[in-house]
Amino acid sequence: MDPKQPKELIEEAIGQYDERCKRKFGDCSNYRTRFLPSAANDVGLVQYKCMCQAGLCSGAHGFQVFNCSKDDRAYNIHCWGRQAFFYKLMFDYGFRLPAHPFIKQFLDFYGVAASQFVPNTWKIVISYLVISIYKGWKPSMSTIRCLFQVQKRGLGWYTLQARQGRKNKLKGPESNRKWKSDFVGIEVSQGTDWSVPVQWRSVRVEDKNEYKSLVLSEEEQEQILYMQNHNHTVEDLCHRTRLYLCLLAPAPDFLEDFRFNKGPKKYSLEPVGPLVFGSVPMIINGRGDDGLDLMIPKSEGNYYVYNLIDGERVLEPNIEPPMFSPEDFSSETAVGKNLVLLATLAQTFGKVKTPPPAIDGSNGDGISFLQLFLLFSGVSASFAEEEMDPAAKKASAAAKAFMEAKFQEKNQSKKRPAPTKPPPTTPAQKKANTRTDVVVVVHPPVQVVSTSKGAPRGSTSCTGDSSKSTPRRDDRPITRKHAAVPTGQKAVDFLADLMERSLKPSVKEDVELVKRLSNEERAAGLLACVNQVCVFAHQLLEPYRPSLLRKDKKLVDLLDESTPTTCAKEARELRENVIHYKRGQDETARDLDTLRMQHSALQKSFDDLDAQHQSILESLKSESSLRQKEKGDFEVYKIQKETEVNDLKVLLDETKLMCDALATEGVNFANSKVAEVLAKIKERHPKLDLSEC
């Protein structure tokens, strides 16, 4: 529908469009909005607050909300294309009008209207836009297409879903399942563009999901890697104040308090804190001095302010640029996740009685990987804090804060009264009631303890009060069939006990051994520690995975995402791959030098050809100018000759007329003279017959 067309044609096109939508989008036709003028006050207040937050009440930005009727549906278009409908939850998740150019590019590629994407989709798109602004990226559809695929949701709606092997890190809060009846009407002012498609369409998702032919740039590959591993939340990224500072949202409208008659007031924007990118806390401000009041005071947290000028990040004046640490990217992603997993496992399993396996150091001494982990986490008091590198201090603080927060959360959950169960009545219920309700069942890879030879190192000893040779069920050692490690102390106390026990046999030797490690060796030890614990925990939990999935699915998912493949065979394959990779690098470097030489020769030939081309162009230009000049001279000569010919034609015509006049006059004169001569002859000779003369 072209708005420049006559209104009669637009109305006819809208009528045909409505009929087509009723046939194709039957699911949407079943939902009418609950935001009606006759709705309850609380429903109207919800709509009013949302529209004020989005700046759609006053119409100052070219868009204004209008009252819906009970016959309106989400796909309808009214008022010659100036009125359309959007879901309220879209604006709650960060969608704004006018939309960012990337959103229009996003919708144009998939060929559907903005309201056809379920609201959860806008969490992904808006969060990606905010991350791109903070990282200084150019938003790319290739990144979205490589990470997500579009899928149908009913008749008319579409959603983005993570591709197989990819993770959606931008899920955000749980979705509202009643959003289909929560749509509002928006009217665009005369002469203002919608900036997004508003006509509902049906597309083939198979045609839109092809992505293997894409050629990604280095920045797009970096975007895909970061979007798969970052730890930012949707709540922080899509905060309405942050959207306003990033120029992704207009200023909110005035909000009138009708309950207390206090008059109109500006809808308040809460101050926001910084986001950490590359270990640098920062806030992007595209609002100049107006945006400074929307940031938390720097006394509450040190951060950098970047002004957004023409889409580029510019550090505030008189501030020394921060040092971005590429190494910290891993701490935001996989390694950071492994540390979180370690803390979670430590708190879940409590005090592990089985000593951990050891890894061999470069000097031939055995080093417990838990010693290295405790060293880097800062739990051990045997090492001075000033001897730790900054990365270790940061990891220590993060690990302690996480474990203490988890412990407090667990204590609070323990204080809640547990629901009482009815007493068992049947024998099956009594048998099932003897099992522990909440228990983590593990199988450590240790040797089963025999009662005759005692407990070997690495297993739990068996003691029994009974005189029988078979111990009680509670005192039996850990076996493959059943084992339980109850939660013991705080996570910090648990780690401290482990450190004390691991360093107790030879404290001085272990301390000196660990102190001699360089920062690179410490980093390698930390990674080995994390990998070993992940593999060890995965082996423990694998036999009981089905029961753990029912008890704590999040912990199992975290374990699966963080478990590396570090068996001996795979390690050898990795080493061989590294050797092949290095050889390939050397060959590539040699080929690159050869290609550079060829490129230089080709560049020289190209320069020569370019010089010849320029000379030919100059000669052609001069010849063309000469031809133009000759053509101009010829045109002038032609005009002159045509003028002369025309003059000669006029002179010829005049001469002809003069000759005709003279001929007529001569004939008349001759006739008169002949008549006179005949008259004289008649007078002299009357009898002469002159009739024939």
TrEMBL record:
Domain Transposase (putative) gypsy type: 88-151
Polar residues composition-biased segments: 450-469
InterPro entries: Transposase_28
Residues covered by region (Disordered): 407-437, 449-484
Annotated protein name in UniProt: Transposase (Putative), gypsy type
